[in-house]
Write a structure and sequence with these properties.
By secondary structure, this protein is α+β, with helices and mostly antiparallel strands. It contains 4 helices and 10 strands.
């Protein structure tokens, strides 16, 4: 069973994440930022995983610590759940339309963290989420999971749709990458 429970406590946040890569049991997300919760739920649904997130953060300051620390903890939880990574597809890619918006995500769970984030949003805030924090979230996930992650938002007008297309594409690509497709490690080097 590829499941992990991880907690992270700092002076700014307390995060607990339970992730199950082999169960599409839904998600329960509570971060104090409703739109961010909605996006994490979309990610889990389209990835076909079970995800529970509980976060108490210093939202009186702003959402930065909450969003980043959830990303850090999620990346670490996924890495723990993947174990030795034997049998995983490793790569995933998806292009997702959301009304007038279109986003593409490609990723490689390679052990080499890297983020390319080509997305600009017209609105500074959606549902309590500072839109510039989307890049911080994906950087935190990629860095802590050892993932090469390319996020490209081709176009869009409505910020809600644009961000949702990104998170759905991430979920679809992630689901492909963590799927078991073989017995060994998918690398000519013999390890990831």
């Amino acid at each position: 069973m590829r499941k992990a429970v991880l907690e992270r406590k700092t002076k700014e946040t307390a995060v607990k994440i339970v992730v199950d890569l082999d169960s599409a049991g839904g998600s329960a997300v509570t971060s104090g930022i409703d739109f961010f919760d909605h996006m994490l739920g979309q990610f889990a649904f389209y990835a076909g995983i079970s995800l529970n997130v509980e976060c108490r953060g210093d939202l009186n300051v702003d959402g930065h610590h909450t969003v980043e620390d959830v990303g850090i903890t999620l990346g670490q939880a996924v890495l723990k759940a993947l174990g030795d990574k034997k049998g995983i597809n490793r790569y995933g890619a998806a292009t997702v339309p959301m009304d007038e918006s279109q986003a593409s995500v490609a990723l490689d769970i390679s052990g080499r963290p890297y983020l390319v984030f080509n997305a600009k949003f017209p609105a500074a805030n959606v549902g309590g989420l500072d839109t510039e924090l989307c890049e911080e979230f994906f950087r935190a996930v990629a860095s802590n999971c050892g993932m090469t992650l390319h996020v490209n938002l081709a176009y869009g007008k409505n910020t809600h749709h644009m961000i949702e297309a990104v998170f759905k594409a991430f979920g679809c690509a992630f689901g492909q990458a963590v799927r078991i497709t073989g017995a060994g490690v998918r690398s000519t080097k013999g390890s990831l």
